[in-house]
């Protein structure tokens, strides 16, 4: 395996400066992405066209020389593959024909997932072949709870009232949906590794809406089950967990038996993460994506503050959430420069 700074960091090695990649590094803030995006009307068709997916996966790596690429796809390809209707409303986001009744689970089937998502795996193989050896390729999936949120709410949500009503009032039937998603996500991640992914990330974007006990049952526990099932099939593959919005409950996720790294959002203090998480697990994060919009001195100060706190331990530089569309590309280049030219100044600085 050609390591590269990113994979070797996940394996426990330290370098003078940490590796950097950015969630949503491919996207609408890049004019070259918008040009390719404009050639396909449906977002899912775009995801399922390997040539186009490969091209936009490579774009940010070419432009900024990042240490990792993430395959261009979406977390909602899994419910789509299971047979739920999924589409994207222009300018609004994802829509699904919401599940309203446990009986409908019976209509979902993971049997066709490998064939249905074959274009994603073909894109991974082709992207891996085109990337420089030192640039890692990440595969990814949504964690079961976040997928269940979209499948039951039918879209994003302000209060997640439907998915919570279901999970709290009918935990047994909710558990069946989570089990189906655990198995489907294991299949999807495993096929991404077979196709050439070097590392994986699990996005639990809505974990933060759950109280602690339900967080354990519906977010952490399914993610750990996925990690252990993957380990059985692919003993060496590093898995990054991103339980967004969980605050100090991030302590529950510093499980080195399951995850190679823990990705933290902007609300977690870098100092706290250095003390409480980093001694146990590699930390990834956590610049505010809006700092990347601001650029200039504000970006330099904040990125340097994070580097001074976390750069002395096992660390991957990233954002606390995805790059937003209004980000000037020049600010991403500025950030990569800041990270690569950072000089360690002692842990207390
Ligand atoms: O560069 C990358 O990070 C790889 C590609 C990627 C996308 N989505 C492409 C995308 C990844 C890793 C995702 C993950 C994803 N998708 C998550 C988890 C991360 C997070 O943001 O919390 C979630 C919740 C989704 C679901 C989703 N897909 C939403 C809510 C939206 C609409 C929001 C928006 O920005 O429009 C999407 C669409 C989407 N997925 C876009 C991209 C680049 C924008 C659509 C377009 O270009 O037309």
Task: Write up this protein.
This protein has 349 residues and is α/β, with parallel strands linked by helices. Helix content is 47%, strand content 12%. The strands form 2 sheets. Strands 1-4-5-6-7-8-9 form a 7-stranded parallel β-sheet. It has a two-stranded antiparallel ribbon with strand order 2-3. The longest helix has 25 residues, at 171-195. The radius of gyration is 19 Å and the shape is globular. The two termini are 36 Å apart. The structure holds coproporphyrinogen III (CP3). Coproporphyrinogen III binds at residues 23-28, 37, 43, 70, 72-76, 88, 93-94, 140, 156, 203, 205, 322.
Question: What's this entry about, in short?
Answer:
The protein has helices at 4-10, 31-37, 43-47, 50-64, 77-82, 113-116, 118-130, 144-153, 161-169, 171-195, 212-233, 270-276, 289-294, 296-310, 329-340; strands at 68-70, 86-89, 93-96, 136-142, 199-204, 239-243, 261-263, 282-287, 315-319. It has 349 residues and is an alpha/beta fold.
């Amino acid at each position: 395996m050609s390591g590269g700074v990113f994979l070797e960091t996940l394996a426990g090695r330290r370098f003078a400066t940490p590796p950097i990649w950015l969630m949503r590094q491919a996207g609408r803030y890049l004019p070259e992405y918008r040009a390719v995006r404009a050639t396909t009307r449906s977002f899912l068709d775009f995801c399922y066209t390997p040539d186009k997916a490969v091209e936009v996966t490579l774009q940010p790596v070419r432009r900024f020389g990042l240490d990792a690429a993430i395959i261009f796809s979406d977390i909602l390809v899994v419910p789509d593959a299971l047979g739920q209707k999924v589409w994207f409303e222009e300018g609004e986001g994802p829509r699904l024909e919401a599940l309203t009744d446990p009986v409908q689970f019976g209509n979902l089937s993971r049997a066709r997932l490998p064939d249905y998502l074959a274009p994603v795996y073909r894109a991974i193989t082709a992207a891996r072949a085109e990337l420089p050896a030192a640039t890692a390729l990440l595969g990814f999936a949504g964690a079961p709870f976040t997928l269940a949120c979209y499948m039951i709410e039918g879209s994003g949500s302000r209060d997640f009232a439907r998915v919570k009503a279901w999970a709290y009032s009918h935990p047994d039937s909710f558990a069946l949906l989570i089990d189906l998603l655990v198995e489907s996500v294991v299949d999807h991640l495993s096929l991404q590794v077979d196709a050439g992914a070097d590392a994986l990330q699990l996005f639990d974007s809505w974990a933060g809406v759950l109280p602690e006990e339900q967080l354990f049952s519906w977010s952490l526990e399914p993610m750990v089950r996925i990690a252990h099932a993957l380990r059985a099939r692919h003993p060496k593959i590093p898995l990054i967990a991103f339980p967004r919005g969980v605050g100090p409950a991030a302590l529950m996720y510093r499980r080195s038996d399951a995850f190679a790294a823990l990705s933290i959002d902007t609300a977690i203090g870098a100092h706290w993460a250095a003390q409480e998480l980093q001694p146990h697990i590699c930390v990834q994060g956590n610049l505010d994506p809006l700092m990347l919009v601001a650029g200039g001195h504000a970006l330099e100060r904040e990125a340097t503050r994070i580097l001074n706190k976390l750069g002395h331990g096992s660390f991957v530089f990233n954002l606390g959430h995805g790059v937003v569309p209004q980000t000037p590309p020049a600010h991403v280049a500025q950030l990569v420069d800041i990270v690569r030219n950072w000089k360690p100044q002692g842990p207390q600085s």
